[in-house]
Amino acid sequence: TADGRHMAVGALEPQFYAAFTEILFAPEGLPADLPAQHDRPRWPELRSRFAARFAERSQEEWTKAFSATDACVAPVRTMTEAPSDPHLAARGSYVTLGGVVQPAPAPRFGDGTAGEPIGALPPGQVAVQGAHTREVLTSLGFADADELLASGAAWQA
């Protein structure tokens, strides 16, 4: 964008792509010589033209332009900005654990809440792969966690 930020575009289906290009090229309208969406040999040209158009306005201006549409376009947020993004906040995409804001565990099942992850560590520490296998299996209802580990079907660090 004009302010050096980025926009994410996922307008793959025809109706979303049409909404995307309509807004991107407003108010002038679609250029007559714009390559077709599925004209693969001309994708580099299409990418270049989209990038040039996005470079004409700031990220916030583009965010406003696409906000009330089904164009599948969204601002790329920093880790500092993301937790307060209205869409991400409404989906509960971030949690605060030990005073540190971080992406919420996914997928979320049942009532959609994430809660405290199994084997949660203090801020700045990273779990060792397989360190909590027995706890995870047990929390998922596998009464035979030891048997699964012994047979090699699961692995514990």
Provide a brief overview of the structure.
Helix content is 32%, strand content 9%.
Total count of helical runs of at least 4 residues: 6
Strand order of the largest sheet: 1-2
Q: Sketch the topology as an H/E string, one letter per element.
A: EHHHEHEEHH
Unreliable runs: none
Radius of gyration: 22 Å
Description:
This protein is an alpha+beta fold and 157 residues long. The protein is built from six helices and four strands. The protein has helices spanning 14-24, 43-54, 59-66, 86-90, 133-139, 145-151, and strands at residues 7-9, 73-75, 94-97, 100-103. The strands form two sheets. It has a two-stranded antiparallel ribbon. The chain has a two-stranded antiparallel sheet with strand order 3-4. Strand 3 (94-97) and strand 4 (100-103) form a beta hairpin. The radius of gyration is 22 Å and the shape is elongated. The chain starts with 6 loop residues before the first strand and ends in a 6-residue tail after the last helix. The model has no long low-confidence stretch (mean pLDDT 89).
